[in-house]
Please model this.
Amino acid sequence: MTLSLTVPRSQLAKLQIHLKQGGNREIGGWLVAEQTAPGKFELVGLTVDLEAGTRDRFDSVPEPHSQQMDRILLENSGRTGRVDYLGEWHSHPTFPPIPSEIDVASMTDMVENSGPSFAALVIVRLMANASIQATITTFQRGQLPEAGQLIIADEVSAAGFGEGWQLPEH
Ligand SMILES: [Zn+2]
Model:
């Protein structure tokens, strides 16, 4: 089943601010999402570590992320669906937002060996016109990576690689 992740505009706006702060550094963190139906998730929060970013590669350091995730879980404890870690996100400030070989290898290693047996990877890129390009790829133990679908809440059309996410101007 192809996973779909709905991104509310409020979360998109937060992401845009993080990406501006990150500049040319790769930044990233964890995705926290509510499962609303089988294969369907809504992003309720994302953690970010602006300190750990480097220009070439994002290294996920657990401590700041687990603290931020605890707060997000607390803030969303009233939701009816299961709210949990969905996966990772990071930026590709200077190249297309598709998983690199290193990205695929590290996500595959995580689901095959150490972490959860399923995780999504969202890669984002802030474009010069402030729109966000993004892809989502899902990794499941024993299976090949699969492209998922990103949906911006309040919009009919789905966004994906090649179609910039345009924030309203105001
Ligand atoms: Zn990457």
In short: Residues 19 and 126 are 6 Å apart (CA to CA). Residues 90, 92, 100, 103, 123 surround zinc ion (CB under 6 Å).
